Amino acid sequence: MLQAHRSSDVTFFKASGLEKIPGVVHAFSTRREGGAKPVMADASPPVVSEPAGFMAAVGLAGWPVSRLSQVHSNVAHHVDDNEFANTTPEGDASYTGLTGLVLEVRTADCVPILIADGSSRVVGMAHAGWRGTSEGVVRKLVDSIVSDFGVSAGDLAVAIGPHIGVCCMDV
Questions:
Q1: Whole-structure pTM value
Q2: Strands 76-78 and 93-96: what pairing?
Q3: Edge to edge, what strands does the sheet with 76-78 contain?
Q4: Which of 81, 111, 126, 158 is deepest in the core (most CB within 10 A)?
Q5: What is the number of other CB atoms lying within 10 angstroms of the CB of residue 148?
Q6: Which of 77, 116, 74 has its CA nearest to residue 99?
């Protein structure tokens, strides 16, 4: 379940299941607060001019940010060093065991998905549009985390962020 929070005049949402995991910082922005941005320590195209305000409000000011050039695929990247924050590879999912690094996903009508495991300290995110979903982007992300970190898929906490629904358009 998502719960609304407000800090420094910025409204954002957090998932109760991920909040229970020590050391995992995450949030979903709103359109008003800089786009639909899930951030994991996750994030949609900026609608306002100050995305730094969102990052500061959720406690991530100054952290390096790993972004993808999202192409509606099933490509998942293992972010294994902070240099990844200086590139923008194509893909729609990423995951890391590093601390102090933000994974960002940007969504509009697609679904932001955040994944975390408390014991291994791994976090992941996916941009799941219809094309990536049909190509198995979330399954590939989970399989990659399980393979690379030796965790059980059943131990992963998952949050599905705000996204478009049948209330707004035919999907």
A1: 0.84
A2: parallel
A3: 76-78, 93-96, 122-128, 111-117, 157-160
A4: 126
A5: 15
A6: 116
